[in-house]
């Protein structure tokens, strides 16, 4: 699990790579596709003791020995390249699963109650739908009139490769689009309607930019077996179980029974914290002991407190506090828990009862305040054309942030340079070795036929992939060029609120971050978010002479959509391509499925945006009150606040006060700490400082959820049991069921949320709106007492 962090001397890497180029050995495949097999007996291996049998095979076969321990025990090491991939059934099922997913995912971003569309639902349903189509469709050949092209409605039995490709298509298309925020803000808040064609192609372009940026990291991080991509490994395990079920494996049938029982159990369980007994979301023992002691309430409460000794039985709190406890390596979970402990158990009491800062109002709030602690009237300091009214601003005074929000912002900025300098120090040897492999593969492509990047690695998975054509670089270049030209045209015509030259900065900054962020995600399963960094950069740029005419509040969200999606979409593409690598899917088929899914999903995204603006727009802006308090558009309000902060006020005014004046120094802190730790690591290697990734630690400190501090203690307990104790002491059971249970629990949670959304939400119509909100807050944290009522009412009035 930690193998990706081991440092090798560059000269050893280079010598080994040169030897592999000169003498690739007997394991080369012919250009003709063939079934690739291994001597591991998948059906009978558990009778001899699965782990022992595979390890015995590992000693005899260097191709298997080159794979990480968990990968060689979970991934099928045989391949049949003749299985169908892009078929008529693939297109039908892709359309069926992408359209509702794109609709629900986009709609959920406008609502308080989400309607999740789980990729695990697609992965499960697609298996049975595919087999159904293979049974009922006739084997007819269909020819297109006027062409020689024809296809079969039912070419062969349903294949695992079709199953994977449909799932990857849904993962690309059945999502929301980050570009919705500036489109909605411009129309509903600022009266500027973005042309539908401009909106759709803008949303497509930011996705294509991200997909094209995946090429920067693809050959560095995907073929190398040491980068396991834990989330991809989890999904692959579920695919493998379905594959074995098709082959009548008794073990696989038992695994599927466990999977569906766990899915059903989680679906039923989540009704307790989500609907029946919300107090199970936050069990605060200190508050039970001293219910009227305000100090004990603050220390123990998971809502508006430190969350000390606070446990949660809500899967959404336990499993999504920065990581998934059943897939994320234990060392990552430890770092995140320490970040939480430092945040809530050290900094919070120091701010509340000590002298950490002079502004004592709104300690755990994410709002902006006046000097007296009241909410800052942001709209009152804007002119009719959305520029700063300096007279009004001077009258109200500077903006203040709650102290926890200040240090969360500090570490949010610090994590980005920390990620870059961490990979330049701790990850340099392996990354540079992989870059050299790419360079040598380029030479080999020119001198020797059919030798690409997979010939630089000699593990079984890369040997299998050698028989498939790689994705040409010009495909990515074409994708980038089309998206880039579209954005340049829109910016030149003044449709998107930002100057053209800022687009180049956005793309350059995103290009710098793609490899460090993807490298970290590949080894740790922790996704670093860009946070408000992009909006900050835009704020600095437009508050110069070159950008002073582009201080529209929608500008930061446009800039953030372009720069942010360049990383997020690159990560999604890389992760799905790693699934394709594990499942032996032709890379070009994976690429096609991702582009096809996006081209289907984005028009659906825009149709939802148009429908919401036309029918729910007044609820989103607050002109009318939603009786169910569901169409709140909270993320839109946050984007609008950030637009005013960074585009109208500007970072210099925002950071003028004492507490916030320290924020720009965060970039220096983040940049220098990894090199310092690297020096210590060289002198004291046994301390394993290479596992204490400060960019993850800073990211954990930057995870600011207002007044919520529950779930972390339950998460570290669960992570210890699953990813440390079970992995080390009961690996045979762990490898059979851990990733399956992780998928089942996530799928069950999402199914529960969907059921609550469709069938139980209407019950809230019959509740008194204010009384229902108070009851929900009281039950959501069983720690609340009479001392909490003032905080409770103030928090509701600010929401």
Word description of this protein:
- The protein has 33 helices and six strands.
- The chain has 799 residues and is mostly helical.
- It folds into two domains: 88-251 and 469-649, no CATH class; 275-411 and 662-738 and 767-798, no CATH class.
- The protein has a two-stranded antiparallel ribbon with strand order 1-2. A two-stranded antiparallel ribbon has the order 3-4.
- Strand 1 and strand 2 (150-152) form a beta hairpin.
- The chain is globular, with a radius of gyration of 27 Å.
How many strand segments?
Answer: 6
Query: If strands are numbered along the chain, what order do they take across the biggest sheet?
Result: 1-2
> Which class of secondary structure composition applies to the elements?
mainly alpha
**Biggest β-sheet description:** 2 strands, antiparallel
**Quick check: average pLDDT?**
84
What's the shape? globular
Which stretches are poorly predicted, pLDDT < 50 over at least 5 residues?
Answer: 1-32, 38-48, 765-799
The structural domain count equals: 2
* Rg estimate, integer Å: 27 Å
* Count of runs of 4 or more consecutive helical residues: 33
Distance between the termini: 42 Å
Instruction: Name the helicity range.
Output: 55-70%
β-strand percent reads under 5%
Organism: Penicillium concentricum
Transmembrane segments: 86-105, 197-217, 258-276, 330-351, 473-494, 500-522, 662-684, 704-727, 739-760
GO molecular function: oligopeptide transmembrane transporter activity
Family: Belongs to the oligopeptide OPT transporter family.
């Amino acid at each position: 699990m930690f193998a990706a962090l081991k440092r090798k001397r560059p000269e050893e890497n280079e010598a080994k790579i040169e030897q592999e180029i000169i003498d690739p050995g007997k394991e080369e495949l012919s250009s003709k596709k063939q079934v690739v097999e291994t001597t591991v007996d998948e059906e009978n291996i558990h009778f001899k003791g699965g782990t022992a049998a595979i390890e015995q095979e590992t000693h005899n076969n260097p191709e298997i020995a080159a794979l990480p321990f968990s990968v060689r025990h979970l991934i099928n090491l045989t391949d049949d390249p003749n299985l169908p991939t892009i078929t008529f059934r693939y297109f039908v099922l892709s359309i069926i699963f992408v359209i509702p997913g794109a609709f629900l995912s986009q709609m959920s971003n406008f609502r308080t109650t989400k309607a999740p569309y789980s990729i695990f639902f697609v992965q499960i349903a697609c298996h049975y739908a595919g087999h159904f189509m293979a049974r009922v469709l006739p084997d007819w050949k269909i020819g297109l009139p006027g062409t020689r092209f024809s296809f079969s409605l039912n070419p062969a039995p349903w294949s695992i490769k079709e199953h994977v490709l449909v799932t990857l298509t849904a993962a690309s298309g059945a999502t929301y689009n980050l570009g919705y925020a500036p489109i909605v803000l411009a129309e509903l808040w600022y009266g500027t309607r973005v042309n539908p064609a401009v909106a759709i192609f803008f949303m497509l372009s930011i996705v294509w930019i991200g997909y094209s940026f995946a090429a920067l990291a693809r050959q560095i991080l995907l073929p190398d077996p040491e980068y396991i991509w834990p989330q991809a490994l989890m999904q692959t395990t579920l695919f493998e179980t379905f594959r074995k079920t098709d082959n009548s494996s008794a073990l696989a049938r038992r695994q599927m029974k466990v999977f569906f029982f766990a899915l059903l159990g989680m679906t039923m369980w989540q009704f307790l914290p989500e609907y029946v007994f919300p107090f199970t979301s936050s069990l605060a023992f200190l508050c039970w002991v001293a219910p009227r002691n305000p100090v004990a309430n603050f220390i123990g409460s998971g809502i508006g407190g430190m969350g000390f000794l606070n446990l949660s039985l809500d899967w959404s709190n336990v499993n999504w506090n920065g990581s998934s406890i059943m897939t994320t390596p234990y060392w990552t979970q430890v770092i995140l828990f320490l970040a939480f402990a430092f945040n809530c158990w050290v900094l919070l009491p120091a701010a509340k009862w000590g002298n950490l800062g002079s502004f004592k109002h709104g300690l755990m709030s994410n709002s902006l305040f006046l000097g007296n602690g009241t909410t800052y009237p942001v709209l009152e300091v804007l002119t009719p054309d959305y520029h700063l009214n300096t007279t009004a601003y001077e009258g109200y005074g500077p903006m203040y942030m709650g102290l926890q929000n200040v240090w969360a912002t500090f570490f949010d900025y610090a994590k980005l340079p920390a990620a870059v300098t961490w990979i330049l120090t701790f990850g340099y040897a392996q990354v540079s070795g992989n870059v050299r492999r790419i360079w040598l593969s380029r030479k080999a492509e020119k001198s020797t036929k059919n030798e690409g990047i997979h010939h630089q690695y000699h593990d079984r998975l890369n040997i299998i992939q050698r028989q498939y054509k790689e994705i040409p670089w010009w495909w990515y270049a074409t994708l980038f060029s089309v998206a880039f030209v579209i954005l340049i045209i829109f910016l030149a015509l003044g449709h998107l609120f930002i100057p053209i030259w800022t687009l180049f900065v956005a793309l350059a900054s995103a290009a710098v971050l793609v490899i460090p962020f993807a490298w970290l995600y590949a080894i740790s399963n922790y996704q670093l978010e860009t946070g408000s960094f992009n909006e900050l950069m835009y704020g600095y740029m437009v508050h110069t002479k070159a950008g002073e005419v582009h201080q529209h509040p929608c500008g930061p969200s446009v800039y953030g959509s372009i720069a942010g999606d360049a990383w997020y979409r690159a990560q999604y593409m890389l992760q799905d391509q790693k699934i394709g690598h594990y499942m032996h899917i032709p890379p070009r088929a994976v690429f096609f499925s991702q582009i096809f899914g996006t081209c289907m999903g984005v028009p659906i995204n825009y149709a939802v945006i148009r429908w919401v603006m036309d029918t729910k727009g007044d609820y989103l802006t607050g002109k009318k009150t939603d009786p169910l308090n569901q169409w709140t558009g909270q993320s839109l309000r946050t984007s609008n606040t950030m637009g005013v902060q960074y585009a109208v006020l500007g970072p210099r005014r925002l950071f003028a006060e004492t507490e916030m004046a320290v924020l720009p120094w965060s970039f220096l802190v983040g940049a220098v700490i990894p090199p310092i730790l690297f020096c210590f690591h060289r002198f004291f290697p046994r301390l394993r400082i290479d596992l204490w990734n400060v960019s993850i630690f800073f990211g954990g400190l930057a995870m600011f959820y207002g007044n919520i501090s529950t779930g972390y203690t339950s998460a570290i307990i669960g992570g210890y049991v699953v990813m440390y104790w079970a992995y080390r002491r009961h690996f045979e059971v762990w490898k059979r069921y851990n990733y399956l249970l992780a998928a089942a629990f996530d799928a069950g949670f999402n199914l529960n949320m969907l059921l609550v959304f469709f069938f139980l939400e209407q019950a809230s119509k019959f509740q008194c709106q204010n009384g229902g909100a108070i009851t929900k807050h009281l039950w959501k944290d069983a720690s609340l007492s009479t001392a909490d009522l003032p905080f409770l009412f103030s928090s509701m009035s600010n929401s």
